[in-house]
Amino acid sequence: MNGLLALEDGRTFPCRSFTGPGECAGEIVFNTSMTGYQEILTDPSYRGQMVAMTYPLIGNYGVNAEDVESDRIQVRGFLVREYQAHPSNFRATGTLGDYLAGQGVLGVEGLDTRALTLHIRSRGAMRAVISTLDPDPDSLVKKARAVDSMAGADFVAEVTVRKPYFWHKGRCVPLEQGEEDRLDPSVWDSRSAPLRVVAFDFGIKYNILRCLGRVGCQVLVVPASTPASTVKALEPDGVFLSNGPGDPEPVTYAIETVRDLLGYRPLFGICLGHQILGLALGGRTFKLKFGHRGANQPVKNLLTGRVEITSQNHGFAVETKSLEGEAVEITHINLNDGTLEGFRHRKLPVLAVQYHPEASPGPHDADYLFDVFKEMMTRN
């Protein structure tokens, strides 16, 4: 089934659907990962976006119920060069095409992803529309220009959990009846892990929760709008700020909450949590030209001198100069463009990284940061 991708600047690309008829719109971005398409599809940080994979063959190992990072597909559309409809992997329980179609997400192939990636790198991430229903390029370009911008929009409100839950033995466990009305130390399980962590869900990934559990944390996940007073009433050992989609500046409620929690307990932020921490400390953020998305992003750890091969997914960044000073120490920088990838506070128990240490993309993965967070809580 033939389709057409139209960008807001007027450029169009022919393609064909492998999930049936449909139309979708959003900001279009590219990801350079060679594998992990199911994790990408279910990462809430992609809310509001359509993702093009630069690796040409996608779908070859199918899908399964274990490799998801949230409870549903989060991307608005999925673009590949060549779709493989017959997966060959012992873990596969279905095809990528059926998986996308089952959740109403449009998938297209036959697209010149190299040309598209070069165009985005040159012109920047932009709004776009894919359609098999409307063949008129002018009409689709007009629709693309009408799509809401990522800048200034609060996408966290779309992905955050509505009610608190515990992460226990690899699954989400709702609070018992009545516990939501009395969020206090009595909700913690004294027989479980010794360290108690309140995790703000700005679009949290399941593997982050697994990593927190691995280092001995009992994790209570709370909505993004949870006030600081509720967190303090729970008396946790630490507070985690998750990844999430879009622009951090409109998430003013979370910024104010984090500002109120500075110095209360150790704070650890990843991705959007890193940006929110930066804003809470008085920093500024800006939109990257085309973002960092892939499993091969080189980051230099300034504390050790080592280069870490990291997994990333973000379109905004904290302005380094806005945080530099006596209070904040810059700990990580991106070796591709020099942008800020990590910082810590010199006096307060605060740690933040822009990349995803839980994704473990290579031999120099950085999930040791969860051990650092554990040490911070133990010392505190």
Any overview of this molecule?
It is built from eleven helices and 20 strands. It has 380 residues and is an alpha/beta fold. It folds into two domains: 2-145, Glucose Oxidase, domain 1; 156-379, Class I glutamine amidotransferase (GATase) domain (Rossmann fold, 3-Layer(aba) Sandwich), CATH 3.40.50. Helix 8 packs across helix 9. The longest helix has 12 residues, at 368-379. The N and C termini lie far apart (59 Å). The model has no long low-confidence stretch (mean pLDDT 95).
Q: Topology of this protein?
A:
Blueprint: E1 2-7, E2 12-17, E3 23-31, H1 37-41, E4 49-53, E5 57-58, E6 77-79, E7 82-83, H2 96-102, E8 106-109, H3 113-123, E9 126-131, H4 137-145, H5 156-159, E10 165-168, E11 171-174, E12 195-201, H6 206-214, E13 217-223, H7 228-234, E14 238-241, H8 252-261, E15 267-270, H9 272-280, E16 285-301, E17 307-318, H10 320-323, E18 328-334, E19 340-345, E20 350-353, H11 368-379
Parallel strand pairs: 3-4, 4-6, 5-7, 6-8, 12-13, 12-14, 14-15, 15-20
Antiparallel strand pairs: 1-2, 1-9, 2-8, 3-9, 10-11, 10-13, 16-17, 16-18, 18-19, 19-20
Query: Main sheet, how many strands, which sense, barrel?
Result: 11 strands, mixed
Number of domains: 2
Indicate the structural class.
alpha/beta
CATH superfamily of the largest domain: Class I glutamine amidotransferase (GATase) domain
Total DSSP helices: 11
Quaternary assembly:
single chain
| Reported CATH architecture of the largest domain | 3-Layer(aba) Sandwich
Total strand segments: 20
